[in-house]
Write a structure and sequence with these properties.
135 residues
Length: 135
């Protein structure tokens, strides 16, 4: 059962970035499914590792374009990315140390953060990216 679904309202109208967002959503759903099925710590850790690594890759890709196109919202956007990465890293370390379990609160945080970030923050760079030929 998916905790988050891709929909056209999440599209930033840039194919490369939309595909990356879809993959992030897939990873969140994969983690949610692992939680529901009470899969073992090793499997959950692999999914968390994949989600963390892909998130960093995706954020670096977005930030590369922001720098290249001299996007005015770069600093605020980058700060949001850094805050999210730190939160996921903290969650990952606590989970691995057995201090924290995978919960619906964590899944809801991941879903809501990604959805709101795309709908609000990412949509702001659309005009700049498209003006510079990214589509």
């Amino acid at each position: 059962m998916a905790i988050m679904k891709w929909s056209d309202d999440l599209s930033v109208q840039i194919t490369e970035i939309d595909k990356q967002h879809q993959h992030l959503i897939d990873l969140i759903n994969k983690l949610h499914e692992a939680m529901l099925q009470k899969q073992g710590k090793q499997i959950v850790n692999q999914i968390i590792d994949e989600l963390a690594a892909y998130t960093v890759y995706h954020f670096q890709n977005e930030e590369k374009y922001m720098q290249q196109f001299k996007y005015s919202g770069l600093l605020v956007h980058t700060h949001e990315h850094e805050t999210f990465v730190k939160r996921v890293d903290s969650f990952q370390k606590d989970y691995e140390a057995g201090k924290l379990g995978l919960s619906i609160e964590i899944m809801t945080f991941l879903r809501d953060w990604v959805k709101n970030h795309i709908l609000v923050t990412d949509k702001k760079y659309m005009p700049t990216f498209r003006e510079n030929g990214l589509n």
